């Protein structure tokens, strides 16, 4: 049966829907002049069109546009874009005893710190008018410059009840936190709903437990409330018609719900007092479920509680302290004591802390956003000398390594070179180098070696190592040599033949640190070490010189690369005649077929999301740029934090939020993880 207020005439409450405790013979009339008008044309069911379905016709969505006053007058919308307009409109509500109240703010308000981004819109409603105070368009930087005096008086008045759902914990809490206002008069509609709904038949359920606005509207006003994607739209820009309709409806719903449910309360026998303002006995942080406090009026001293009035004990009573302690007992884990640092590691830790403070000062952000103390502790304890070793430490990912990895490595390398007279055996054995990324149990990936070279390597195993650095007094690293027999330096290219005394290469065939643009074909077969590699035709002198120049250009690091710390850059203090080549990747790498397919899938996914945005104009720019798609494929984010750090991703995230689409799950499904 329709709820009271669906039409203008009086209706009877059925026993199953008796929320007032009265007899079914009693009639309850809609108490206001503005009421929902019946539809002009009656909706017909499918059976009326010769279908066999018994499904009833669909119901209309609830909206303030459904209400009409005397002489078919519509509800007036007052939309203010400036502080001066807000002052004129706010004065019209200062003599009201109750007003519907609601607020909207951008979904990404944490990204900006200006006041206009913390509260975008304030809605106030009475029976015949709804005012929309667009704070996001008001000029100024302080509260006095943005909030009109009459609007501030309306918010802080304890005699004007502000009606809403979760108004104390959401709206009033934000006004106190960001605007330093002292809002009063928060009337929680959930309290009145539970008093009317359960007071006559199950009074043990009358409590401060919240109920959603959509449930209140459908249960009391007879129509479902539309909560679409417009609620996550940008409220800091001029409002569209959809935004105005949505914002005005929430505030007007609070006003109509109050009068509908309060009229039912007055018909209860005995008539219970009305709930008092929530800010008079509840905290601004949502915690605990307690009995409702009742009084003669919402701003009067409380007379009793729901438990005392009905003589029952609440069924769902959860004190705030008890629930908090229970949650702490379940979630708290014992802390593992951290092993103290030795004197040398503590000195390095102090230098890392100073470096972190410098980075934070330049970026104008807190130091903890650069790196945590535990991360610096791990860096000081392990002392990684290259990017691969750093990524093995807990808490350091690829994004952090790209931003600050070179800085940490520079500090660690300088510290090790200056203070360490002997290598750290434990650190050297635990942390692998960039040039030894292939495990030893894969012999097929290593280049073929002659027995004489193996014996020579065994003899010098205790004397030389790729982990050595000039600071430890060990010989410099040898010139890298590819498995094809082509050894290269910075100035020449030569063929390694029989009897060559060159040491074994430190770069494995399958390592990602090798030069990807040098294509020497598939892995060579294991042949006799005395056989030279056959060539169909000897290259000319010009050709050899050209190849050498190309190879030198690919492998020659720039000045910034030479200054960046790594395991191989420690050889820069060697003699200038010995050129050490770091395994540097070329600036650009052609994408693989797998990456191209993943990018095309993401492009198609973005177009599907765009098609779901019905209000988006056809000539609008794409929701994601080509450059942002390339960054998504390149970084392959696996967490929401990594995804939000990608430049230009905000519009894509907002579109997916509006269409209820999980962007991160789609990226994980399409984009392959980077090794």
Automatic annotation (TrEMBL):
Protein known as: HRDC domain-containing protein
Disordered: annotated span: 1-28, 422-486, 502-591
Pfam families xref list: DNA_pol_A_exo1, HRDC
Compositionally biased intervals (Polar residues): 18-27, 462-471, 505-514, 546-580
SMART domains according to UniProt: 35EXOc, HRDC
Residue ranges with Basic and acidic residues bias: 534-544
Organism listed in the record: Neocucurbitaria cava
Residues of the HRDC domain: 342-422
InterPro entries cross-referenced by the UniProt entry: 3'-5'_exonuclease_dom, 3-5_Exonuclease_domain, HRDC-like_sf, HRDC_dom, HRDC_dom_sf, RNaseH-like_sf, RNaseH_sf
